[in-house]
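Consider the following assembly input.
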Amino acid sequence: MSTKNVMIVGVGGQGSLLASKLLGRLLLDEGYDVKVSEVHGMSQRGGSVVTYVRYGEHVYSPVIDKGEADVIVSFELLEAARWLPFLKKDGTVVTNIQQIDPMPVITGAMEYPAELVEKMKAAGAKVDALDCLALAEEAGSSKAVNIVLMGRLSHYFDMPEEAWMKAMEAIVPAKFLEMNKKAFELGKNA
Amino acid sequence: MKELMLGNKAFARGLYEAGCSFVSSYPGTPSTEVTEEAVKYDEIYCEWAPNEKVAMEAAFGASLAGVRSYCGMKHVGLNVAADPLYTMSYTGVNGGIVICVADDAGMHSSQNEQDSRHHAIASKVPMLEPSDSGETLSFVKLAYDLSEEYDTPVIVKMCTRVAHSQSVVETSDRAQIARKPYEKNIPKNVMMPGNAIKRHPFVEERTAKLRELAETASFNRVEMRDASATGKHVGIITCSTTYQYVREAFGNSVSVLKLGMVNPLPVNLIKDFATKVDTLIVAEELDPIIETHCRALGLDVIGKDVLPICGEFSQNLLKKYLSPIVTGEDYKEDDLSAVNDQIPMRPPVMCAGCPHRGLFYTLSKNKCTVLGDIGCYTLGAVAPLAAMDMTLCMGASVSAIHGFNKAGGGENEGKTVAVIGDSTFMHSGMTGLANIAYNQSDSTVIILDNSITGMTGHQQNPTTGLNIKGDPAGKIDLEALCRSMGFERVRVVDPYDLKACDEAIKEELAVKAPSVIISRRPCALLKNVKHNPPLRVNRDKCVGCKSCMKIGCPAISMKDGKAHIDNTLCVGCGICEQLCPVGAFESCQKED
């Protein structure tokens, strides 16, 4: 198989590292070669952050380039739009509809663009948008947005749910496991 | 066992498996996690040193005592540690020494984009350069063997994409390495002219031997293109993560010489490879090190005349610049999806509740000239605060304000401050402060004491009273330290108290004496910090004057002409409340 590419994008501090850890574990368990690239350091301070997850028979480059992503998973709507040029022509965007104002919007220098879901669709992307924050809160914690998104992402992976659950048990601390399983189901079935 | 492992974690695993038992480092992105992972092994003593020079000298001491030791740093950290490095090259080692230097092509989290390979060449120390986590683990073990066999420190060079990407590694057990006895050896270890003169030829011989090793060792390997490939035979000499981009971009249609040791470089291996191909390319990030070596051998190569010298590479970048040479056809970038709107930038910002914010707001309000330093607080330069005039390197704020004030003809003292974090002050701010005390300038230095090394992800330092494991440790008293240097004016302010900050800055700038202001409050992200409930805006009271918007808090925005607080971000620091002329901010309990 050719290498598959998943990008996880969001705002520094939103919990994308756990999502990439879960995906990495899942894909390794399923027997793939995997590479995951993360961002540490200055960009974590509320900046735009991106994680690259690549898997296949043999993965060389740790990064995903423009036009290469099969799926973009976004924790925040504007970030989905920002990274859209990295999506393949027939790729899918799975995005939280939460909006977090960046500094140019906060200071009034720019507006937060309106109707981004429609605009991404108009640009040719398949867009699967959901209110992950509400679902995460329903599951028991606003911090579970990452797992809600992973539940939704599972639609686009040809892997049994047991494999996801096994990876989750390996990654998530036991006391948060039930809550995260609920978050996963809520995202999956939304 | 097979595991998916971060490059830096694989480095730490390599230290463990190689029997390393002493680690001393200073944090710096992208090198920090090596030491943070190493500390998880009980068999390895680990510490954060005040700076990279101290860390390297401590590792040297440990080697002298007979154990395998390690120190790690980012590229600019190696500049600080260059002094011991260049002479450790002469003394060599007792227990093996491995040094990690992590470069940051693309400047994800750095102030420059220097290529550390220059240091390896200049100090005549061998340097290995892995291209993924698996190679990192095996190269670290190899580095210790080379260090002891060839009597030299060995540098393992990482880069952001190897350090911070996870790939599959195979782990094994720890080697049992006995401590070697310490033996007094003045000619080898006392580097004064009479002895060093005799060591320099040893260094040159060692480099020649290592170059010989590089001709045949498996860390340098040739991968010839598919036998079925036709057309012009292109050969690419490459190293590090660029090897991965070459393979990603061109598969097996090109032949590759992948160099695992970038200093010293082989001669015959390269010449031989060149004879087998029609066209020779050198693909390396940043400076033309391998390319220059090839040209010195009289080879005709394509390198920085085609490929960029600035920034990171990627598979598409190589396709763009090299496809015309490799395939004879121009690379056409895919038609990309994009929305037409201009997407607002999202630069990193000071966090909600960051203790630096109140201080920088006060400096901005007083129109101070601010000589800055390296840390989270460098973000004080970002709009709307824009309260910084200079940032150079670790510690430069304190040294530079002295020169700025001395040379300013008396115009600068009353409006200029230096700002430096607690960890950066310990790293290299103290010596600058000694210069102010000694050569007497009326400089005002503000130490932003947030009780942690923030930007690199919360490491302890000599002022926190805790060691790398979080256990109680020695604690340097900043006030006492400054007073003991001769500063009579040392005062502490709470940066959440704008009035107190304003008074302190106005008074210390007005007085004709050197002074230190310690702006003290722990980082808002520290787990043990208790926060107030978030604030909310009473929309009936808010007049939409935007006074609260001057502080650049990510939790505050304008909604329908009135201020709005995101209560998932707000930690109730109260800075905005102090700026509101109509008392529109009220406390609320967290909803969850």
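Chain B touches chain A through 65 residues (CB under 8 Å). Ask yourself how this observation constrains the way the partners meet.
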